[in-house]
Design a protein that fits this description.
Length: 296
C-alpha cells in the first residue's frame, strides 16, 4: 500500500475560488497553524486546516505564481513555483508514493513528489520544482511578524471537509494515517527536519518543546532552533559562528547586544538579519524515508 494510484483529484478538489482577507476581517482562530509566505512586500497565510483537504492551492504573491502544498499523511507543507522548464504549469493530485502526495503535470504527465518537488516518474524524472521559502507558525505569530498579511479564506463549498480536519493540527485524530504518536521516534511522532545544502538533521518535537532553544550545527554550519512561547511556531536560523549564543525572551532572540525578532530580522539599524534555514515539521516515518542519511 506504500505505492498506489487513486482517483485523488475526485476525492480532494481544488478551491473554486481563492480569496483572502486581512487579519482583522478573518474569522480564523489565531491559534491555528498556517503556512506563511512573503514576497515583494506582500505576505499571505494559508491555514493548514484548509490546505490539508485541498493538498494544493494555486495563488500569486507579489506577482510570483505559487503552488502551496500540504500532505496530511506526512504532516508537512511545501511551497513551490509551479514552473517546469521555466514555463507555468498546472498539476493534479494523482495519489501517494511512500505515503507522500504525488502531483502530475498537465503537459508531460510527469509525477512530482510533494515533499521535495522532485520529479520521480515520467519524461522529466530527476528535475525539481523551484521551492519558495515558507514558515509553519500560528496565525497569531505570523500576523505579529507581518501585520499587513492577508489570510486565505475558506471556500464555503468545502466547509464540511474543513470541519473534518479541525482536530488534525493538534494531533488528536485517531486514523492510522493522520494520528500522532506522542512518544518520541515512533512512526507518527512529530519531528523538525532541517535541510542545509546537501546535509540534513532531525530534531524530536518533544525535546524541542522542553528546551525551546537548541544550539547545534549541520555540516559544520552553526544554527539555532527556536520554539515560540505559543508552543507551535518554530524557526531555524544560521548563527554567525559556533561561539554565538542566544537567549529567547518573549520570542525575541538576544545575542549579547544584538536583538532579533522571531523570524531573525534585526531590531537594530545597520545590523544584518539572520539567515533562515529550511525547516519543516513532519512525521518521523516521512522524514527518514526521504532523508535516509539524516543526522539525528
Amino acid at each position: 500500500m506504500a505505492n498506489f494510484e487513486m482517483a485523488a483529484d475526485t476525492m480532494f478538489y481544488q478551491p473554486k475560488t481563492v480569496a483572502h482577507a486581512n487579519k482583522a476581517d478573518n474569522k480564523l482562530d489565531s491559534n491555528r497553524l498556517v503556512l506563511g509566505v512573503e514576497h515583494g512586500g506582500e505576505a499571505k497565510a494559508y491555514p493548514i486546516q484548509y490546505l490539508g483537504y485541498h493538498h494544493q492551492v494555486r495563488d500569486t504573491l507579489g506577482g510570483k505564481p505559487l503552488m502551496v502544498t500540504y500532505c496530511t499523511v506526512c504532516r508537512t507543507g511545501r511551497v513551490y513555483e509551479p514552473l517546469v522548464g521555466g514555463k507555468p504549469e498546472t498539476f493534479r493530485l494523482v495519489g501517494m508514493d511512500h505515503f507522500n502526495a504525488m502531483f502530475e503535470d498537465n503537459t508531460t504527465g510527469t509525477w512530482w513528489r510533494q515533499v521535495s518537488g522532485e520529479a520521480v516518474a515520467g519524461p522529466l524524472k530527476g528535475e525539481k520544482l523551484p521551492e519558495y521559502p515558507s514558515s509553519q507558525v500560528s496565525l497569531a505569530k505570523w500576523a505579529e511578524l507581518h501585520p499587513n498579511t492577508l489570510v486565505m479564506l475558506p471556500d464555503p463549498a468545502f466547509q464540511e471537509e474543513y470541519d473534518s480536519l479541525a482536530n488534525y493540527e493538534s494531533g488528536r485524530r485517531k486514523g492510522k494515517l493522520t494520528r500522532r504518536d506522542t512518544a518520541s521516534w515512533q512512526e507518527k511522532s512529530w519531528v523538525i527536519g532541517v535541510e542545509l545544502d546537501k546535509a540534513s538533521k532531525v530534531y524530536d518535537w518533544n525535546e524541542v518543546q522542553k528546551q525551546r532553544l537548541v544550539h547545534d550545527e549541520i555540516g559544520g554550519q552553526p544554527l539555532v532552533l527556536a520554539l515560540s512561547k505559543d508552543g507551535n511556531s518554530f524557526v531555524v536560523l544560521l548563527r554567525k559562528n559556533a561561539a554565538q549564543q542566544f537567549l529567547l525572551r518573549n520570542d525575541t532572540l538576544i545575542s549579547g547586544d544584538l536583538r532579533y525578532n522571531f523570524a531573525g530580522k534585526s531590531l537594530q539599524p545597520n545590523v544584518p538579519d539572520l539567515v533562515r534555514a529550511r525547516a519543516y515539521q513532519e512525521y518521523w516515518h516521512s522524514w527518514r524515508t526521504f532523508h535516509p542519511l539524516t543526522e539525528k
